[in-house]
Amino acid sequence: MTLNRICTALPLLLSVSLLASCDQNSVAAEQAAPRPVKVVVAAAEQDKVPSLPGVVRARIETDLAFRVLGRIASRKVDVGDLVHKGDVLAEIDPLSLQLAVRSAEADLRNAQA
User: Fold this and answer.
1) Domain boundaries in the chain?
2) Interval 81-91: pLDDT, tens
């Protein structure tokens, strides 16, 4: 008879303990939920940014000189660009140089004739 009571009571005890454990988890989950916090969004004041007049100058300035005369056909760099030794800064229109070469060749032929 004791075995019959144990077999009847055991499933009942397991069911009760299972239900009790589910209830404890839900209470623990409710307690672990964070509390809501009030947040205030404030606009930044941009009127207090100072505006000062001034002139910005380069620390190092270089005067440019060219070996030949002529019009600049294209400029390869802009103000403020970083350049290195050997970089092409501008190209000169070759028409005036070609005309000067032809004139010099004509003068040479006249001198040789």
Assistant:
1) 72-79+88-112
2) 888 999 998 88
